Amino acid sequence: MVQYVLLLFMSVTLISCKPTEIIVQENNFSASYETWVAGVRGGGSGINFYLELKSELPSNVELKKVIFRGYEVSFEKQDNLHFQAMIKTSGNQQKFEGDDSQIYTSPKNALTLAENEAILIFLKSGKEIRQTIKEVKERPMLLYPSAKPKN
């Protein structure tokens, strides 16, 4: 009797465990980011997130978004192996008197990740699949030069 209960328990446990689907193996891509700040006061700041694949994604898989440092943004496909997501942060944002434009930053996500972790969001045959990246490499910060003085 105990054997049957144990067998039933093990079967239910194994059936209820949902394996995490891996779309891209860790050795088949590199992920990196660089922060940037505009060279003029109020010009904005952000993070450029890069994903470079070593082989193309299957035809039924599409890379949609990344969640990084609390922001969730869509990827722009550069080619079949290179993707970029541009995150606009709130640093170096300044409104001037009479300026009625809105300060734009990328949408926030409630997930808390380590500083160098990200989540890639794929669509596979219409189903959303999330894959966590543990090691996103930092590139040197981009410091844009200040604007030329107006004559």
Helix content: under 10%
Mean pLDDT reading: 80
Poorly predicted ranges: 5-19
- By CATH reckoning, the class of the domain at 25-93 and 106-137 would read Mainly Beta
Count the DSSP helices.
1
**What structural class is derived from the secondary structure elements?**
mainly beta
CATH topology label of the domain at 25-93 and 106-137: Immunoglobulin-like
Shape: elongated
Based on CA atoms alone, the radius of gyration comes out at 21 Å
SSE run:
HEEEEEEEEEE
In what range is the share of β-strand residues? 35-45%
Question: What distance separates the N and C termini?
Answer: 92 Å
Which sheet architecture does the biggest sheet show?
Answer: 6 strands, mixed
Number of strands: 10
Keywords:
single chain, 151 residues, mainly beta, 6-stranded mixed sheet, 4-stranded antiparallel sheet, 10 strands, elongated
